[in-house]
């Protein structure tokens, strides 16, 4: 009897919180007069414009059947080549490896399997089950780059090229070239390689925005691809506008965005300090099921928040180019709490206002 009462009270508490705040904290308050998390991007009252924006998600693949991504995905591509592709080679099947897939002795983790799905949901989720993308009218172009096996540098270069609509030998042409490319990956060379920089230059010359996670390297400098010129590098903030301890820390970091972390010592609704994502979890019988969970933590999740923000901006101003970014985005930058670990850093975050939609 006591257990039933405790469960009932707990359930009512959860429902009360959900009713009070039906949008994820990183988007801002549900009502204009409500308090919002200090690092929220405040897009909750900004409707997408009339122009559909394509955001390529170069990642572990996307599970297309998730309800929160219903209607949000374009035909994508699996760019992982043999022998690293357990399916034998490249194809139009952009789904991740199966949960129990092995590459030699290496077992793919559940986090790797669902990573691309979670990233995509932060950009363009349709609101089902409480998962809201920054721009639900954006279309996600899924490109699989890694799985149980490691990726190659050639696969990375080809994935970026294909996303941009450039020809890739042996691959079908991309009928939906991206306006924005999101790469929630990090850990390449400490200096941008000449091959990658040449390709980024070509992509940016096509007026495509390239976004990359700064990396979860605990305040070390930016690795590839975030350290390449022309890339919008994104570090991670907690809900209270502080740079997370795991985030890369570098004067070259373009922006910081909500990336979440450990629970905060606060009674505010954003103290959970994790991002709501569309994902997959296991039930009591060990079967995989679609889920919506507050578990997004990392620069991997801060990057798609910025990708969604830029896609929202482009949906109102489709002719804007990467060259417009520094001039136009000064309207939407906010100060981020500085850290003594990088005295030369002047970190900036994002916060939307009416100028996002004005001509």
Quick overview:
The protein is built from six helices and 13 strands. It has helices at 2-20, 110-124, 153-163, 194-205, 299-316, 325-328; strands at 54-59, 77-78, 102-103, 106-107, 139-144, 180-183, 209-213, 231-237, 255-258, 275-282, 288-296, 333-335, 348-350. The chain is globular.
Widest beta sheet: strand line-up = 2-5-1-6-7-8-9
Query: Using only CA atoms, what is the Rg?
Result: 20 Å
**Number of self-contained structural domains:** 1
Give the overall silhouette.
globular
Number of helices: 6
Question: What is the helix/strand order?
Answer: HEEEEHEHEHEEEEEHHEE
Average pLDDT reading: 91
Give an overview of the whole structure.
This protein has 359 residues and is of the alpha/beta class. The chain has a single domain, classed as 3-Layer(aba) Sandwich (Rossmann fold). It has six helices and 13 strands. Helix 2 (110-124) packs parallel to helix 5. The longest helix has 19 residues, at 2-20. The chain is globular, with a radius of gyration of 20 Å.
Question: What descriptive keywords fit this protein?
Answer:
359 residues, alpha/beta, Rossmann fold, two-stranded antiparallel sheet, 6 helices
SSE layout:
Layout lengths: L1 H19 L33 E6 L17 E2 L23 E2 L2 E2 L2 H15 L14 E6 L8 H11 L16 E4 L10 H12 L3 E5 L17 E7 L17 E4 L16 E8 L5 E9 L2 H18 L8 H4 L4 E3 L12 E3 L9
Parallel strand pairs: 1-5, 1-6, 2-5, 6-7, 7-8, 8-9
Antiparallel strand pairs: 3-4, 10-11, 12-13
